[in-house]
Amino acid sequence: MDSTNTDQxxxxxxxxxxxxPAQRKPRxxxxxxxxxxxxxxxxxxxxxxxWLDISKYVSTDDAYVNANxxxxxxxxxxxxxRVYVRDQQRVKAGDPxxxxxxxxxxxxxxKAQAQLDLARQSVSQESxxxxxxxxxxxxxxxxAANALSNWKRNxxxxxxxxxxxxxxxxxxxxxxxxxAAVKAAEANVAQARSTLGSQGExxxxxxxxxxxxxQAQLDLDRTHVVSPVNGVVANLTLQPGNTVQPGAPLFVxxxxxxxWVDANFKETELVDIHPGQxxxxxxxxxxxxxxxxVVQSLSGGSGTAFSLLPPQNATGNxxxxxxxxxxxxxxxxxxxxxxxxxxxxxxxxxxxxx
Length: 354
What we know:
single chain, alpha+beta, Elongation Factor Tu (Ef-tu), domain 3, elongated
C-alpha cells in the first residue's frame, strides 16, 4: 500500500493548455482594400474631370507662339557710321537704329537744289521772251492797222483822180507786208509760249528739278534709319564700318503689337472650332500665367498640304493618318511682365460654343 501511494505521488501532473487568442483579420488586407478604394475614387474623379474638360474645351499642346517680324533693310547704300541698338534690345517706333555716311547724299542734294535754281532762272528768261514777242506782235498789228488806213485813203484818192494808181499799189504792197509781219509775230509768240510751257512752279522743268530735290532729300533722310514699330531687336550683327546695300536684310525687329498662336488641331476636332470663339492659352514658359485669346481663322489645308514634299496617297501604300490643321488664335491680353517668345510652345484650349 505504501509503495502504491509512493508511485502515484511521483507521477507528473498533466500540462495546462493556454487559452487561444481571439482571431483577428490581417491588417495588410485592410490596407490593400483602402488603397484600392482610393485609386478607384481617384480614377473616377480623373475620368469625370477629363469628361468635363473635353465636353467644354477642344485642346492641344501642338501650338507655337508667333508675332510679326519686320526685316530691317537699308534703302540707300553706304558705310555704317553708328549703330544705336544691341541684340535683344526693346525699342519703340521712331527710335534710331543706325546711321549711314550721309556725305554723298548731302552733295547730291546741293546739286539738285542748284539745278532747281537754274530751272527757275530759265523759266524767267523764257517768260521774258514771251513778253518781248507779244510786244513785237502788238507793234506789227499797229503797223498793219496804219497800212490798212493808208491804203483805204489812197484808194479813195485814186478813185477821185487825186492820186495815181502807182501810189495806190504802193499802199496795197505796204499793207500786205504789214499783214505778213503780223503773222510772223504771232508765230514767234506761239513758239515762245510753247517753249515756256506753264509759268512759275507749274512749269515742267521746274517740277522735274523740284522732284530731283525731293528725291535727294529723301535719300539723305534715309541715311538715318529708325524703328518702324515697337518691338525687340533680333539677330543683330551690324557693326560700324559695315557697308550696306538697298534691300539687303540686316536684322529682324519682332513687333509686340500683336501675338498669336498657331495651334495644330486634329481634323476630327475642327467641327467644334469656329472664328470668334474664345480660347485659353498657356505658354510653356510661364506655368502660372494664362493668356486669353480668340480664334481668328482656320487654315485652308493641313500642314502637310503646304509642305515642300506633300504626301502622295495614290501610290497604293496608303495608310490613313489623322491630319492636323493650323488654327490661328490671337492673344488678346499680352503682358509686358510676361513677354511671349516666338517659336515657343504653348497649350491651347478653345471653348466650345454652347
